[in-house]
Amino acid sequence: MKPIDQSRTSRRPRRGHALPETERRRHAVMLRVNDAELAEIDARRGIYDRGEFLRMALFGMTQARPRPAMVIPTLNQSAWLELSRSASNLNQFARHLNEAGIQLGDLPQIIILLNQFRDALIGVRLTEDMDDES
User: Fold this and answer.
1) Are 64 and 8 in contact, with CB atoms under 8 Å apart?
2) Do 3 and 59 lie in a common domain?
3) Same domain as 94, residue 62
4) What is d(CA 86, CA 51) in angstroms, rounded to the nearest whole number?
5) pLDDT tens per residue across span 68-84
6) Where is this region: Disordered (predicted)?
7) pLDDT at 6 over 50
8) What is the distance between the alpha carbons of residues 43 and 62, in angstroms, rounded to a whole number?
9) Measured between alpha carbons, how far is 46 from 49 in angstroms, rounded to an integer?
10) 95 and 55, same structural domain?
11) Nearest to 45 by CA among 63, 33, 59, 20
12) What share of the chain is helix, strand, coil (3-state, %, to 5)?
């Protein structure tokens, strides 16, 4: 067996990659191993995922095949950045609620805040905002 070049990093395929029809992996093969065999696989695979390492070993590859790069249009990049900030804020809000607990009296205010957050995400202009501008 050829030695495997472990200087290459392993990258999991991302959703949305459109591989050519001939390269799509549609079949799963299950392999059962005992504890000693699993330890041997883990010791040899280095930086590669187990499946990727076994595929490389089976087909005599010394490094993983490069994955196609995902190109994100500039417009989507800016939207992604803006959305990630909002998602981060929402996660912090949810974490605070989980740690502090929700009191029954707080629920109507939380619902109002979440509806305002949703409206801001989808670009709805609130009637109060329109009244302030006139």
Assistant:
1) yes
2) yes
3) no
4) 36
5) 666 667 767 777 777 88
6) 1-22
7) no
8) 16
9) 8
10) no
11) 63
12) 55, 0, 45
Q: Which two tokens stand for residue 4?
A: 């495997």
Q: Which two tokens stand for residue 82?
A: 């803006």
Cβ partners under 8 Å of residue 13, min gap 6: 67
- At what angle are helices 107-122 and 74-100 packed, to 10 degrees? 180
> How many other CB atoms are found less than 10 A from the CB of residue 6?
15
Residue 4 CB neighbour total at 10 angstroms: 20
Contact 64, 56 (CB under 8 A): yes
For 75, list phi and psi in degrees, rounded to 5: -60, -45
Please identify, among 68, 98, 124, the residue that sits at the C-terminal boundary of a domain.
68
Residue 68's pLDDT is: 62
Residue-wise pLDDT tens digits, 18-30? 667 787 888 888 9
On whether both 62 and 83 belong to a single domain, the answer is no
Are 46 and 92 in the same domain? no
Query: Does the pLDDT of residue 35 top 90, yes or no?
Result: yes
At 90-120, the pLDDT tens digits run 888 888 878 887 777 778 888 888 888 888 7
Q: Which two tokens stand for residue 23?
A: 């390269």
